[in-house]
Amino acid sequence: MKLGTLLLRNAAIGLSQLEAALRNQVLYGGRLGTNLVELGYIDLELLSAYLAELSGFPIATPTLLDQASPALIEQLGADEAHRLRAIPLGYLGEGSVAVGLVEPHDPELGAIVTPYIVPELRALYYLEKLFGLPRRARFVRVGNAGDAANGEPGERRRTQPAQGMVMPPALTVEPRRKRPTTAAPLVGAMPFAISHAAASERIDAATNRDEIADTLIAYAQGRCDALVVFLIRDGNALGWRSWVAQSAAPTRPIEELSLPLGGASALQSAHDAGQPFVGTPPSAARPVEKQLWAALATGEPFAVLVVPVLVKQRAVNLVYAHLTNSAPPVQLVTELVDLATHAQASYLRLIRHARGA
Question: Which domain holds residue 212?
Fold first, then answer.
């Protein structure tokens, strides 16, 4: 039996609530229980109880997680803990080790492991707390009244301002900058990874959200100096996938980047208008864009392109692209807008499939 079916059978949620959670799962990822908690339909304790009933394993309670064995934590290491989403709790006797797991049926687990079930949100909190593994921005939500019941003691969740950053009221637009005469553009140094037609077909046939984002990244190679696909949640643009056509590695994982959609920025303009933004950012200070460029380890580009992906007239993704030494060509703008339309149709198809499954 699936989690959604069990919750419906026991009247823990309604059908409309399940459908909303499935929709969010398609758009934002995460497990179904995670999305139900984030929407405020159930809390972590109720979710834990139902996951234990489904799996047949005991619950890794906050008390057990807080008392996790330091020796076992050190022995497992951060990389393996992150890969397995595993938190070692302690020894049970006869060589068996109790381990809190999001997926207790992982075939990699050895016979000496006794699984304890832990919800995804709680596991990510403790992976950060015990191993220093930062959560992706997608799992760091704006605080609200319901978080006290759904979060973890003490830390809860890091927050962003609900309306983003407050910008100065007076805005100026700088004149277009002259194209630099030094440093040849990187675009063109490599062939296209995928044609526009092939990218459209891949997105149309995508079976999950990751395939949509990965196709956009593949399309960028050879066409852009940088491309980032953002998730839009709680008034913020959350890094999801990125491509940078340069040797210098980004200064931080794009999944940890959260940029506010408030005040004035190219991201905010595309988001609010529901239309592509092409040109220099609207704020002379460029505070939001500079955070992005710093994270990507790129210099300030000549101009930027931001294309929204809309689902029912609401932006769920922003696709940001730039070329270092020139404005985005018309063909790039046209093709990215077309791919965003294909992504919209694919999202709607995936949502219908999730609701009908």
Answer: 196-356
